[in-house]
Amino acid sequence: MYCNFSFRVMPRLAALAPADGILRMQGFNRNAVRPPFMAAFFGAALLSVLLAVRAVTAGPGTAAPVPGALLVGGAVLYLAGFVLTVVYHVPRNESLARLDPRAAGAVPVWRAYLREWTRANTVRAVLSTGSAAVFCAAAVLSA
C-alpha cells in the first residue's frame, strides 16, 4: 500500500489541479480512518509487539535464536514505520484536512505536503517491506 501511494497515487495527485489533488487526498485520509484499515494497522503493530516479546522471553531450547532475532528485527522495522505514521503522517494529514483547497495559500502548502509526505511515506514503504521480508525469513527458518 505504501509503495502504491508513493509511486502511483501521489504522482497522479500531483498532476491534478492543486484544489482537486487536495480534495482527493483529504478524501483518502478520511476513508483511512475506518475500522478495516485501523484494525489491520493497529493489529499488525500489536502482533509485532507480541512476536518480539515472545522471542525475547522464550526460554532456552523453546525457540531457535535466529528466528527469534528475526522476529525482533521484523517487529522493530514494522514499529518504526508505525511510529513514523503516528508522529509524522497523522499530524500532516490532520493539517491538510483543515486546508481550504480553494484558498490562495493552498498551493504552496499542497506542494510541500506532496514532497515531504511522499518522501516519508517511501521510508514507511521500505520499513514495511523490510519487516515483511524479515518476518518471512523467520517463518522459513523456523519451519
Q: How would you sum up the major sheet?
A: none
How many domain units? 1
- Briefly note the structural class of the backbone: mainly alpha
> Shape, please?
elongated
Q: Calculate the mean pLDDT score and round it.
A: 92
Low-confidence stretches: none
Helical coverage, percent range: over 70%
Transmembrane segments: 68-90
Protein name: DUF1772 domain-containing protein
Keywords: Membrane, Transmembrane, Transmembrane helix
Pfam family, one: Anthrone_oxy
Overview of this protein structure:
The chain has about 140 residues and is an all-alpha fold. The protein has one domain (about 1-140). Helices cover about 85% and strands about 0% of the residues. The longest helix has about 35 residues, at about 105-140. It is elongated and about 65 Å long.
Q: Which helices and strands occur, and which strands form pairs?
A:
Elements: H1 2-15, H2 18-32, H3 35-57, H4 65-97, H5 106-142
Helix pairs in contact: 1-2, 1-5, 2-4, 2-5, 3-4, 4-5
At a glance:
By secondary structure, the protein is mostly helical.
Features:
single chain; 143 residues; mainly alpha; 85% helix; transmembrane helix; membrane; Anthrone_oxy; transmembrane; DUF1772 domain-containing protein
